[in-house]
Amino acid sequence: MIAAPPRQTEHSRYAWRGALVACGLNAVGLPFDLLLGREVPNMPVWPSLASGAAGALLAIVLLVGRRRPTARLAMAVFMVNTAVILVALWITSGAYAAAPARWIPFQANKIGALAAAVLAPDLATGLISISGFVGMVLLRYMSLPVAQQQRMPIGEPWTILIYGVFAFAILAYRVHSVALARRVLRMRTESIATQRLARTFLALRDFTNTPLQTIELAAKILRARCPEVAPVVDRIDRCIDRLYRLNHAFSVYESQIEWTEKEVSPDPSVFVEH
Q1: Is the pLDDT of residue 224 over 50?
Q2: Which of 4, 74, 170, 240 is the most buried (most CB within 10 A)?
Q3: Would you say residue 200 has pLDDT above 60?
Q4: Taking the domains of the chain in order of start, what are their residue ranges?
């Protein structure tokens, strides 16, 4: 018999894929931010490069363990990746805020919150990551000089709260959808297993019907021709009765089988030893 795969296998692979995509976005997206801020005075280069390198390194860690992924590793990598991004954004946002030209603040945090809602391995990791992107914006805003705060567009930085609400809603919906899909898959698997068991029981019933009828007929002939063996025949009749009751119990499973036009009843010959 082939051993069933662990219950967490599908969940682990799902979490692994989400963490891998998040690391890939970090490895590509943060260095790309350097191009957008190339004209910003005093823009530090190392935070974006370090964050991108960390994303690439974390992606390699996941790829090394791709044959036996675990949800715990995926969650840990996702959290580390998010922390590295937040550190880089904290530093680069200060340079953007001090630049003479106006900027649309904290766009990376808004995108990060939505990405976390879509890619987080589980509910807790998603909640923490989204809260990190939202909370960093509010703390960074409070740490800026008043002059830089006043230069921000109307509604900033409070629009991050709207993004946070949408991100939480997307995360909750996704987690619920995944849980529902797993429940449906489990019910479908159980239904297939039940039908296989029902087919086996019906095959056993069909296989034993003819021998039982033969034994019952032989017992009647024996009772009629040899009255002196009546006690032995009575025991045979009781055994036959018990087997018929067992067959009746097997018949209950017949209603659980979904027959199609191409299907035929089970072949009882599978129970015969060749």
Answers
A1: yes
A2: 74
A3: yes
A4: 9-157, 193-271
